[in-house]
Design goal:
This protein is mainly beta. The chain contains one helix and 26 strands. It has a seven-stranded antiparallel beta sheet, with no helix packed on it.
Length: 279
């Protein structure tokens, strides 16, 4: 089998979003190697002032969002009447489709907040589908291994040895495999993900050896094509594995909207201004 190797390492950068929420961000809206993913934001704080304003009501069109909390709570409300509150270890998936208006509020647990929001692109054929929402509390996230070498699978499936590892989220707009790997120093993991999936990883703790290249906390890596992912924790470590079928279409991004042309962006803005974005 061909082992996936590191093509590029990208350092996250400090930013703000919503009502002044401090985040670390990696984005690749026009990076074909990032597809089908568009952006990952890491929220990590022990200071409520960093996020107290949250994310007031705002629109989206043309994307999916996946929110995953390691520590803390995350409240969601949307125009469809969905109200959800994640606890530590849970995930929320939302497909904005043709339009959604929602608000989000991160909340500490035991003085800590640590989570992620991932933007996933939608293919043109699905960008104007009806919006959808589903949350998965911590017990619904499938876990494989032990505390010292734990794989929590959120979306899709992969193969480990001859066994399938599978997540509860199976309805994403494109096929994805998204998982959280946590391991003590010296622990290893080998995963076979379909070779036509592109793969990125975000290291949120410690240092991980990926095909003999060390990747440190706060960095995203783009991986080569291949059949097999081999990981070794050089120290106590954690990483998000983000893989999926790339979308070979133009990407035009404007604020909360991601479409295929500027005309479609302009239409989304007009629809929002005229109060018909979600109709």
């Amino acid at each position: 089998m061909n082992i996936r190797t590191v093509l590029r390492v990208i350092r996250s950068h400090a930013s703000k979003d919503g009502d002044g929420v401090k985040i670390s961000r990696v984005h690749g809206f026009n990076d074909s190697k990032f597809s089908p993913f568009l952006m990952i934001d890491e929220l990590k704080s022990d200071n409520p002032d960093d996020y107290v304003g949250g994310f007031p009501p705002h629109p989206h069109r043309g994307i999916e969002t996946l929110t995953y909390m390691l520590k803390g709570h995350f409240q969601h409300k949307d125009h469809m009447g969905n109200v959800g509150e994640l606890s530590s270890g849970g995930a929320q998936w939302m497909s904005a489709g043709k339009g959604v208006i929602h608000s989000e509020m991160p909340i500490m647990n035991d003085g800590e907040l640590h989570g992620f929001q991932i933007w996933i692109n939608l293919p043109a054929a699905k960008k104007m589908n009806p919006a959808q929402y589903h949350d998965f509390q911590a017990p619904e996230i499938n876990e494989y291994g032990t505390e010292n070498n734990l794989l929590r699978v959120i979306s899709g499936s992969a193969t480990e040895d001859t066994a399938e590892v599978v997540g509860p989220l199976q309805s994403t707009g494109v096929e994805t495999f998204i998982a959280d790997w946590r391991a003590s120093a010296g622990e290893t993991r080998k995963l076979a993900v379909p070779s036509d999936y592109q793969m990125n990883m975000y290291v949120y703790k410690g240092t991980i050896d990926i095909a003999n290249q060390l990747v440190n906390q706060g960095h995203m890596v783009q991986l080569s094509a291949g059949d097999l992912l081999e990981l070794t924790a050089s120290e106590d470590a954690g990483a998000l594995i983000l893989s999926g079928l790339p979308i070979d279409e133009p990407v035009v991004h404007y604020g909360p909207f991601v479409m295929n042309s500027m005309d479609e962006i302009n239409q989304a803005v007009r629809d929002y201004q005229n109060g018909v974005l979600t109709d």
